[in-house]
Amino acid sequence: MIAGKFATILPLLAIVAIFIASSPQTVFGAGAIAEGFAIGDVLDESWGWFIVVGLGAVFAVVITLETKIEEKYLGVSQTSEWFNTAGRVIKTGLTAAAIVSAWTWAATLLQSSTVAYQYGISGPFWYAAGASIQVLLFGILAIELKRKAPNAHTFLEIIRARYGEGAHRVFLVFALMTNMIVTAMLLLGGAAVVNGLTGMDISLAAFLIPIGVMIYTLVGGLKATFVADYMHTIIIFIVILTFVGTVYFVSPVTGGIEGMFDKLTEAAAINPVEGNAMGAYLTMASLGGLIFGIINIVGNFGTVFVDQAYWQRAIAAQPTSTVKGFLLGGACWFAIPFTLATTMGLTAVALGVDLTPEQVQLGLTVPAAASVLMGEVGAVMVLTMLFMAVTSAGSAELIAVSSLVTYDVYRTYKNPKATGKQLLKVSRVTIVGFGIGMGGLAVILLGMGLSLGFVYLAMGVLIGSAVIPIALTITWKRTNKYCATLGAIIGLFVALGTWVGVAASLPEFGGQVSLASLGNNYSMLFGNVAGILTGGAIAGLGSLATKTKFDWDEMKKRIKLVDLAESEMAKLEADEVTLQKAFKFSLKGGGLMTLILIIAWPLPLFFADYVFDVGFYSLWVGISIAWVSVATFFIVGLPIIEARHGISKVLRNQKAVPESEGGGK
Fold it and tell me: For residues 518 and 441, what is the distance between their CA atoms, to the nearest angstrom?
């Protein structure tokens, strides 16, 4: 973790250098209301190449060096187990940082501000709350994995150990489909912003963005992605804090909190928001915001519970750090979309940034607002922040797909007796193949006319039906394999049928099924809800009607380690009493925070039809600033504190005991 020290310095130096190179006039833009946002006229195309290729190369080199330092001084050995599980010894701080980074997609930065631009202040809240509760609740599954399947490398190994190969193949399709959807959103958002700000060819950007990620993931595996996640997250928080300071305390263009309040009130009078109380932007009483919130909640259960990237973080974490890491990560992640979109999404409204519907759907609200507010500096900061989000989440998807192909395709169906060296080779070949294919997938979707916003809203329709069957597999011994499998399959078809059926019934689209009618809020809402409820009902009610019972002790016997002896694995496991306490803590912590975020906080404000006055708006902004500040402290500081002994050993040029033997990093 020596790179952690450099990570705190590099982004600061880069941002300071950008500010020094800019004049005060450039920093605050023209100081006028935007009359439009023209594609490609904010930055020179060379900035696109610098960020996508240059910055990508810098991180590839830094993370690769960090990996080599760990191998030399900290006793790390690149076995297949280490490559795909990071030794199962990751502590709370780095686990939380990795979760924050993996969950900070292009959509986190772009779509959250899009819904702020569309629905007002309710959009950022529903984006943040509707996508953080999944991580908070996933802590329950994470600790159950530690209790019942400590040998697992992927969640699909648990499916196979319990249900057999038929169910395994079905859920493998859902898992890979999830990785493709997430990857598509990352590159659609990233390439659109690079193109929108610099004019760089959008297809070329989509192909080049994954290259640097591919290099350091290829070298260091899961642990390298964790360290990169940490570095990237620091930069994202620094940029958000810079925007917060500029909008609310520095810029004469916005006029601070009171100036923003006045501008947002005026904007609502000129262009009232349909479905909002009094047409106001500053109200939680927003029908559109609530509908988006429901879609967001359902869809994001799929992209957490069915995404190997989050199971991999649970597998990599120390047993005693698992729940704390997920709860801390979920709480800190909330601050990113909540604060960024409350700041920049509403700034776009306040400054009258003029975007076409197509530009809004591409996610260009934040870059447009930053460009108007801070000129080239704002555009460069958005570009840098977005590149950090895309590459860090992209690395999580790369190693996730690598693990699935290695353990659930190659080891399961091709070579059950594969050695550690063979598995490591397959992992690296998969990273290269998927890394190159990521760009091709994005280009295909762009050619089909799909945008970030459309894919984001549709993801629950495609994968939501698998959520409850997967959750029941690791938590309930009575889950029946046929009910779980059929729930996922039938739920998918019900979701698709409902989605298309509602789209065809909408009178404003003349009964036509098109991208426009499929992208309508009601089509997405009913499709998403139908999928997750059908899958859950078939899996849950069907299992109740059977007499299935599973012996959890069989799980460990059926999932085999490769490069790690059972005796070594036993040293990494916690006792049952400790795990039981962690399980109860995950239920209480995750459950309580979920109730607060989706019921106790927003619903009274929604039903009260309350429109914020300047005092309540100031309080709301104050909460967002405090939350992001505390989150920054934990995500930046805790991993360094936990890694202090390893950093000290490296600086003293002393070789450490390998982590599997009790050493620390």
Answer: 21
Q: Please answer whether residues 18 and 383 qualify as being in contact, where contact means their C-beta atoms are separated by less than 8 angstroms.
A: no
* Cβ atoms of 96 and 304 closer than 8 Å: no
Cα gap 410→430, rounded to integer Å: 11
| Structure tokens belonging to residue 413 | 């169906």
Distance CA 75, CA 665 (A): 10
**What DSSP element (H or E) covers 310?**
helix 308-316
In whole angstroms, give the CA distance from residue 118 to residue 292: 11
pLDDT tens for each residue of 202-231: 888 888 888 878 887 887 777 777 888 888
Whole-number Å distance between alpha carbons of 84 and 591:
30
Q: Are 374 and 28 in contact (CB under 8 A)?
A: yes
- Average pLDDT of span 134-156: 91
Query: 209 CB contacts (<8 Å, ≥6 apart)?
Result: 52, 56, 187, 190, 191, 194, 387, 390, 391, 394, 439
DSSP string covering 249-270:
II-TTTTHHHHHHHHHHHHHHH
Listing DSSP states for 512-542 in one string gives --SHHHHTSHHHHHHHHHHHHHHHHHHHHHH
- Can you give the pTM of this predicted structure? 0.86
What is the pLDDT, as a whole number, of residue 571? 58
| pLDDT digits 0-9 by tens, 112-138 | 999 999 999 999 999 999 999 999 999
What phi and psi values does residue 31 have, to the nearest 5 degrees?
70, 20
Closest CA to 153 of 374, 344, 420, 394: 420
Q: How far apart are CA 373 and CA 6, in angstroms?
A: 30
